[in-house]
């Protein structure tokens, strides 16, 4: 029995030792009628599993399905492996070898029937270091992957196309999207639509990769109007589902960042988010959120409260006012500032008796008072004073109205029962 030799990854592999399908060193090379040699198991899969009748490398029609063992090439490969294994020194792949393999994969990946395998190999190369990631971008890698992602949209029912799309996103997740050209490629409507659909249907890993790509695009001031118009509430539902993910903290964090950029872009986007139930979800997540998430959730709530529909959604929620109030003077200066802005919007534009009573009963007014005791002036403190002066006359009728506020308002103590 012939002893199998393993190829050390640091060896410069002659291109003709590699199977044109898998780009791996061949163990059982066989030649088809066109004269091209392949790894036996790969060409058999092409012919018998995929029912193809052409040569994968040349796309010429095959005269027959005979697979002739290439003994000469096999001896050459074994001799090369034995020679290299004696002299090889453990070291990283040279830059030139990495580049050649990268370029070879990018050139053939669009036509190979083993696209998922090729994408996995490409992903392993890209993961090696930042230099290769940059080389990948400069070699047109993003353009190649964007075509694969778009193809996934054409037929998501095709398992291979779907898995290829997931693998392509796994590579894009790792590379820098700093150039305008890269963003422009991914910003094409069909590519964005495919990624938005993957956000809904993909595996947990694929969804993480997609939302991370979206966040990286958001940093470049990408215009979200097209994808929001196309996907509508489905997009917001997917984002909110990720925000609610208590297991994958990174996906949740990225989803918050993307939501902020989308909502900042237009009032129409905020209305769609409100319609998707964003306010209810955020209010219920807010109590247990950490500092970073709490600040971003409050920013989103503040953006939604700039719409009448958002303010109504907040006050209609039984935990709305109490959840906001508890974050004031408790988490950070940012949460205090945002919390006061939200209370200002609610009390200025929606000052119903129910709202004002809840603000008094659930501690909002006491938090406003706490701000007045802080030394120095600030826009947040000024806003707190305006809220108190705006509604002090109504609040003082309640027994629980803090007496110390009367001094700030210049009110006389009411001793009547």
UniProtKB/TrEMBL annotation:
InterPro entries: ARM-like, ARM-type_fold, ARM_PUB, PUB22/23/24-like, RING-Ubox_PUB, Ubox_domain, Znf_RING/FYVE/PHD. The keyword Isomerase does not apply. Its EC number is 2.3.2.27. Residues 12-87 form the U-box domain. Pathway: Protein modification; protein ubiquitination. One of its GO terms (molecular function) is ubiquitin protein ligase activity. Keywords: Transferase, Ubl conjugation pathway. It comes from the Eukaryota. It catalyses: S-ubiquitinyl-[E2 ubiquitin-conjugating enzyme]-L-cysteine + [acceptor protein]-L-lysine = [E2 ubiquitin-conjugating enzyme]-L-cysteine + N(6)-ubiquitinyl-[acceptor protein]-L-lysine. Pfam families: ARM_PUB, U-box. It is an enzyme of class 2 (transferase). The keyword Transferase applies. GO terms for biological process: protein ubiquitination. Functions as an E3 ubiquitin ligase. This is U-box domain-containing protein. It comes from Aquilegia coerulea.
């Amino acid at each position: 029995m012939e002893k199998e030799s393993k190829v050390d990854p640091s060896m410069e592999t002659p291109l003709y030792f590699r199977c044109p399908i898998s780009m791996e060193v061949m163990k059982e090379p066989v030649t088809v009628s066109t004269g091209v040699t392949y790894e036996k198991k790969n060409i058999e899969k092409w012919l018998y599993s995929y029912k193809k009748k052409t040569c994968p490398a040349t796309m010429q029609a095959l005269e027959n399905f005979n697979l002739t063992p290439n003994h000469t090439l096999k001896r050459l490969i074994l001799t090369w492996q034995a020679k290299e294994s004696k002299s090889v020194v453990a070291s990283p792949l040279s830059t030139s070898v990495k580049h050649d393999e990268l370029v070879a994969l990018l050139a053939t990946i669009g036509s190979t029937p083993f696209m998922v395998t090729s994408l996995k190999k490409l992903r392993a190369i890209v993961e090696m270091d930042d230099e290769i990631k940059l080389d990948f971008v400069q070699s047109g890698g993003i353009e190649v992957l964007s075509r694969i992602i778009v193809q996934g949209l054409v037929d998501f029912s095709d398992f291979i196309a779907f898995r290829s799309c997931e693998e392509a996103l796994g590579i894009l997740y790792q590379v820098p999207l700093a150039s305008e050209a890269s963003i422009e490629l991914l910003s094409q409507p069909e590519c964005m639509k495919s990624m938005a659909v993957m956000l809904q249907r993909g595996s947990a890993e694929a969804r993480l990769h997609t939302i991370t790509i979206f966040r990286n695009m958001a940093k470049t001031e990408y215009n979200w109007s097209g994808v929001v118009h196309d996907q509508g509430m489905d997009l917001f539902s997917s984002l909110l589902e990720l925000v609610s993910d208590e297991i994958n903290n990174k996906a949740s964090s990225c989803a918050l960042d993307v939501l902020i950029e989308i909502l900042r872009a237009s009032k129409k986007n905020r209305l769609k988010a409100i319609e998707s139930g964003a306010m209810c979800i955020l209010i219920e997540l807010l109590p247990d959120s950490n500092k970073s998430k709490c600040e971003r959730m409050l920013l989103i709530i503040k953006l939604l409260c700039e719409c009448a529909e958002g303010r109504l959604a907040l006050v209609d929620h039984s935990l709305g006012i109490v959840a906001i109030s508890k974050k004031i003077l408790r988490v950070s200066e940012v949460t205090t500032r945002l919390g006061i802005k939200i209370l200002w919007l609610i009390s200025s534009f929606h000052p119903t008796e129910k709202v004002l009573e809840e603000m008094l009963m659930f501690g909002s007014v006491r938090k406003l008072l706490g701000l007045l005791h802080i030394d120095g002036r600030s826009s947040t403190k000024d806003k707190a004073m305006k809220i108190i002066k705006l509604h002090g006359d109504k609040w003082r009728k309640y027994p629980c109205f803090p007496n110390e506020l009367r001094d700030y308002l210049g009110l006389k103590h009411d001793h009547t029962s």
